[in-house]
Amino acid sequence: MAKQITGTILSKSGEHTVTVGVDVMKIHPRYKKRYTRVTKYHVHDFSGTSQVGDVVTIIETRPISKTKKWIIVEKT
């Protein structure tokens, strides 16, 4: 089963490439304070219709290019 993640489109670069940001909650090992980090993924967009700000679900797939290993499954 492929990994499935939900995130927000941060930018578009090229015709079929978008950058998706996923908020990850972490806890500091010593101080136990919670903080949020954004992990960015380069994602392949087959249709090319996604816009910045859309919330999308992505899954891991075979390497499409040097940095793209994810594709958009659906807009939510």
From TrEMBL:
<dbReference type="Pfam" id="PF00366">
    <property type="entry name" value="Ribosomal_S17"/>
</dbReference>
<keyword id="KW-0699">rRNA-binding</keyword>
<dbReference type="GO" id="GO:0006412">
    <property type="term" value="P:translation"/>
</dbReference>
<dbReference type="InterPro" id="IPR019984">
    <property type="entry name" value="Ribosomal_uS17_bact/chlr"/>
</dbReference>
<dbReference type="GO" id="GO:0003735">
    <property type="term" value="F:structural constituent of ribosome"/>
</dbReference>
<protein>
    <recommendedName>
        <fullName>Small ribosomal subunit protein uS17</fullName>
    </recommendedName>
</protein>
<dbReference type="GO" id="GO:0019843">
    <property type="term" value="F:rRNA binding"/>
</dbReference>
<comment type="similarity">
    <text>Belongs to the universal ribosomal protein uS17 family.</text>
</comment>
<dbReference type="InterPro" id="IPR012340">
    <property type="entry name" value="NA-bd_OB-fold"/>
</dbReference>
<dbReference type="GO" id="GO:0022627">
    <property type="term" value="C:cytosolic small ribosomal subunit"/>
</dbReference>
<keyword id="KW-0694">RNA-binding</keyword>
<keyword id="KW-0689">Ribosomal protein</keyword>
<keyword id="KW-0687">Ribonucleoprotein</keyword>
<comment type="subunit">
    <text>Part of the 30S ribosomal subunit.</text>
</comment>
<dbReference type="InterPro" id="IPR000266">
    <property type="entry name" value="Ribosomal_uS17"/>
</dbReference>
<comment type="function">
    <text>One of the primary rRNA binding proteins, it binds specifically to the 5'-end of 16S ribosomal RNA.</text>
</comment>
<dbReference type="InterPro" id="IPR019979">
    <property type="entry name" value="Ribosomal_uS17_CS"/>
</dbReference>
